[in-house]
Amino acid sequence: MKAAPQIKQLPVANRTVRYVSIADVSGVEQLPFSLRILLENLLRQAAIRGVDTQAEVDALLDRKIGAGLSFYPTRVYGQDILGQVMLVDMAGMRDAVAEAGGDASQVGPKVPVDVIIDHSLQVDSWASPIARKVNLEREYERNAERFAFLRWCSSSFEGVRIVPPGKGIMHQIHLEYIGKVVWTDKDGQGELAIPDTCVGTDSHTPMINGLGVLGWGVGGIEAEAVMVGKPVALALPEVVGIEVKGKLREGVLPTDLVLAITQRMRALGVVGKFVEFFGTGLEALSLGDRGMIANMAPEYGATAVYFPIDERTLDYLRMTGREDAQVELVELYAKAQKLWRGADTPAPRFDTVVTIDLDEIRPCLAGPRNPEDHLPLETVPSAFVKHYQEIAGRPLDPEHAAPVKGEQFSLHDGDVLIAAITSCTNTANPVNMMAAGLVARKAVALGLKTKPWVKTSLVPGSHVTAAVLETAGLQESLDALGFHIAGFGCTTCNGGSGPLPDALVEAIEAEKLVGTAVLSGNRNFEGRIHPNIRAAYLGSPALVVVYALTGTLSVDVTKEPIGIGSNGQPVYLRDIWPTSVEISKAVEGAYEPAIFREKYSDLFEGGEPWDALAGERSERFPWDDASTYVRQPPYFEGVSREAAAVQDIVGMRPLVILGDSVTTDHISPSGAISLGTPAADFLLAKGVERRDFNNYTTRRGNHDVAVRATFANIRLRNRIVPGVEGGETKLMPDGKQMRVFEAAEEYLRRDVPLAVIAGKNYGCGSSRDWAAKGVALLGVKAVIAESFERIHRTNLVGMGVLPLQFEPGTTAESLNLDGSETIDVPALAQHLEVSGQIEAIVHRTDGTSTAVPLIIRLDTEEDVDYWRHGGILPLVWRDYVSGKSEEHVSHSAKRVQSEVGGPQHELPDAMPGTEVPSASQGAALG
């Protein structure tokens, strides 16, 4: 079916903009709204870039699931960890291009790039009026090298702007300020209006889907490709329609809904799919609710979780202080393009439809180790008994206690040691934050106090949240319970919970207690929150306050008293839980456009400590070989100008054999760097004191640290060493047990290629590209799993590691793999194609061999091309060296004029005012 692109005119706000129309395309009304945005992108490629996309348009309109599409996002959005790693690679590529005789000045973004510094904050100080100040100062002390590099990027890469530390969390800032919904590009013919789309270097990027902006998380490697003008290679996804009915009951909060959806979607199986909401119940979901639901997309594996543009979108844009002209543009463009959802809009045709009745949602927590581990609130005490047995390997003894040195209390299994109101997921939702403040106010009025062993913290996602809590008169009550504002950024849910008091740690470790945490985050993976937290539970900010009062998970807060009031009488949950009317009044009285305008007026200003990091603009970054934070990346060493011929993989040894739902935290941890790990040993040898280790997250700009973190999670379970917890394996054929890094080093010295064997959902969790980079640098040539999470599979391809999938029914257990085997993948060149079929040969020590059918998980032609080149970075380098890079410049790129302090984008007008290293190369990395 021919869908010729048409460019039309749209009068709006005293001007006229052009747009590539999709409204007249036959069958567009049947497409889910998210696919309509992909359709516009394809038609715009044809109309503006002159690319023939007709076959892709036909595949999309015919809903040929799995068909390859090229998608050019408008921009790249990132945080300081993967964003920094992405820019480190870009700076390294400039060096590599220059050293090959190319023009290094050509290496840079072709689309706008925002990086928000939000992942470096730790809760070192808490329950104190000066906690916010102390933690920000400590953040600068630890991360000055990293921040200086990012400042260099903002002045030396055109089109990159950096939001300094202490401003908030990227996703809340995205919703409240950065996201435009409709973007305009200026060219020689005027303004072209296009959907605002993005890829982000954080897996929770889909939060912006709640605003009607289509975007999703990718690894830094894939984001780098988009930066230099390459499209995202997308296999046309299935779209699951979620029909929403009814409204939430009294006493139920948005977090309860989000955790219920997470459980249901993970059970349904939506990995690699788009999810889109529709139905009459959408009217009952605020923009804050929608953002929360979309934020949790990676927790259930969806690529995007889209909410169409409607009146709620416009209400939110107005509330957050966007200009009237931008709100008008969004409304008129969406309606002209059939991207608008009204009450009478017919439901699109979805591949699967699921109904959610809001009236059925009940209060809950989720834990102890995965966001989909849904627990109705009344079941928490009994559930913990089972969780304890699983974790500790023994029955729960309620009398088991550990005295705490210098204190009048003892610790018990199940005590809550960390209660953190944290994360973009919850602090961006006005209802959640007002509910938490009201719970605190009522609790303080009744004389309740936080238990003395609970570390409390409140870390909002933006300064707006702090301002409205103050305006509503609720921060004083939160302070009284120890929930002083500890800063603005991503903390506990990202592994930045900071230290526990030494006396508590000594008691926990002496008696091997199972300590717990309750947090309003989106992640509770094993080993992530804190090394001494064995069970972590997600819940609403209001429930975080409640569990800080009980101090334990052993109390049934739905029936038992949560404390004793100042009058000596028991206080129950019903005594402090706010009504929906109370919450609504608090929200209406506190959230005003003027607050948003004020708090975002200085978003890109960091004050004296930020200004002190400014350096000289230069074409190439002055690397410091002594740095333990930022090092010149090794990915271009020994890369040839032409891709090598495909070779069979012969003699692979299993480095690790893992089970189901291995997260990127298991592969490349983000939390504290524990003594006794390869990374800790490396830092100590470099003269870094333990107090200055920082965490794995902040060290990823140094490949020597990050490669040592690979498979170093303290909770990893490798079946090659059954019964052992942590980053251990066996060196084969010797059979000697050692740490994974040292074993990989020895295999590299012996020139032995490696494999990783895993179960279902391998690589779920964060979009962490170091979970692929580290594996590649250890010498892993293939990962063989029962299934892959989308982002991690893409990252593996981007690093030249071959993802191979067992056929249904075949597992490491069914093959009786124990790590003593060698594995060949013969005839690879003959079978290398999109979703190709191949056999691996497993050779056993008894001389027998087994042929194992596998699926080559290269899902698009671009995947095949990237893998042939040894990954995205070598391919892009070859493009630059050969002069091909300009062919990939995106039509939606906008070159920006330099300003004082370095080039920046225009502020949103919505607001007033390689080849994988060989074994020998890899050995040198150690």
What is the gist of this entry?
The protein is α/β, with parallel strands linked by helices and 926 residues long. It contains 32 helices and 34 strands.
Helix-strand makeup class: alpha/beta
Number of helical segments with 4 or more residues: 32
Biggest beta-sheet profile: 7 strands, mixed, barrel
Q: What does the average pLDDT come to? A: 92
Number of strands: 34
Radius of gyration: 26 Å
Strand content: 15-25%
In which order are the strands of the major sheet placed? 26-29-30-31-34-33-32
Q: What is the rounded distance between the termini?
A: 56 Å
Helix content: 25-40%
Identify low-pLDDT runs: 886-926
Shape: globular
Verbal overview:
The chain has 926 residues and is an alpha/beta fold. The chain has 32 helices and 34 strands. A seven-stranded mixed beta barrel has the order 26-29-30-31-34-33-32. A five-stranded parallel β-sheet has the order 6-5-4-9-10. A four-stranded parallel β-sheet has the order 14-13-12-15, with helices on one face. The model is unreliable at 886-926 (pLDDT under 50). A hairpin with a 2-residue loop joins strand 7 and strand 8.
